[in-house]
Sequence to fold (209 residues):
Amino acid sequence: MPRYNAPFEIHVHGQVPLRPDVSFAQLQDSLKPLWRYAGHKSLSDAAISAYEDEPGIKFDATEHLLQMCWTVPGDDDFRQTIDEVCMNLNEIADSGAAVEVTFYDTDFDEQDGPSAEESRDDFLMLFVGPNPAAIMQVQRDLLVQDLINMMERHFDGSELGSVVAEVDKLFAKRFDELVSSLEIGKPPRGMGGNSGGGHGGGRKPRHLH
Fold:
């Protein structure tokens, strides 16, 4: 059933490369927690976003790509749902990908100006992939991009090679530790928090991609 008076509007955004053999039926099964959360009986019914200007959830069979720009009303329990979806996508992903989840507080209106009550907005950056190495590669690429964007305000890009090399060392160390601890079957989901992934503080503008 649709959720009325939900405390959040939850926006899911990302592109996940899928294995060439993945069918729509397999994708629908993987995304079942998502479309059931939205109160629908199939992926096709749930694929339309709450906002008309968003493309929703699309399966590009030619490019073997899952595209998500989709909003649904919900609560904090959506976190468990998106965790289940990411675990399912690990099984059908062809390479690593990031999935952004933004919680917009429906009771907060930034047009009202300063208020005693702060927004409950939250932002998560989750990662999926066929194996831990693919997931860490995406994490590494995003971190390097964020670092370069920030540091190029003060340094020339040609000066940042050593910074990137240190980031690579950190991820190599993390991967080695993951393998040695025998947790290869539990890939790290990635960063969470209000401004994870280097997107900066403050309220994230809706539909800004």
